[in-house]
Amino acid sequence: MEFSKITELLAGEPKYRLTQVNQAVFSDLAENWDDVTALPKILRERLKKECPMEIPAEISVSAGEDTVKALLKLSDGKFIETVLMRHEDGRNTVCVSSMVGCPMKCAFCATGEMGLMRKLTADEIITQVLFFARLLKKENERVGSVVFMGMGEPFLNYDNVMNAVRTMNSPEGFGIGARHISISTCGIFDGIKKLAKEDLALNLAISLHSSDDEVRRQLMPVAHGYEITELLAVIDEYIAATNRKVMFEYLLISGVNDTDEMALELAKLLKNKLCVVNLIQYNDTGAFIASSHNRMNRFKEILEVNGIQTTMRYRFGRDIKGACGQLATGRN
Ligand code: SF4
After folding, report:
1. Is 227 a catalytic site residue?
2. Which residues of 198-219 are buried (b: 16+ CB within 10 A; e: fewer)?
């Protein structure tokens, strides 16, 4: 949906019309302007023509029904994927994309293989949340949190991402608390520094995936530009400025980054940092083999014994290729 057009369309209307429209779009989650009877018919007709509410999408649901993946068709015919994760405790998280494809070429990631096709607009990012908000409404549920962990590197599309975040957070938008919105980056220094200055207390997640520079460079070409210690220095500045805990994402890949030595090295690097490590089981994209549960548990144990707060995430939506690193539409 092109939300930015709404303001233009309402230019000559009384101010309260915008409130009514926001209420209809973001709170009532109307799917058709005809249903928004608070608006005069003539305005509804204009909105129908110039800002249609339909969101063209195809859905796949995982066998366990805990993951729903939507393939959304954009106005230029390109496709993106967005994922709803339904947690056991009833929370619903939407994993949004910020680009069609991605230029970062991480070796474990199907999106990276696509290369960058284009960046998404703020409207296209917001539409992903709206799509699942409407779906959940049918079950009397709502979107509780949003993570920027879908297709693309959010900090290479900073302004559009932040504009979308503001609508997600605003009481006139979805009203999702800033602490329930997370941005994940492969380590773009500029973006981390800018985020530290924002007036929103968002969560920052860093894709680290190795405690060794050489291994990280093999997995993530972005790491050719700097050493892990330089990245951690930027994160120290971020923590000092915000006093917010940073999450380090660590995908465990058999024989590549899951040894005891690497766990110890990671613990050393992160010692005394306000952070949590999220260990993620590798999702098969054909390039590597996932670490076993035993290996993952051992890695976690070493971090914890050394004082590092650690969580572990197994796969969400693996059977529908909706898991971390698996998003690639194959349609563009
Ligand atoms: S992991 Fe993220 S940053 Fe890396 S290629 Fe995939 S989408 Fe891009």
Report:
1. no
2. eeeebbbbbbbbbbbbebbbeb
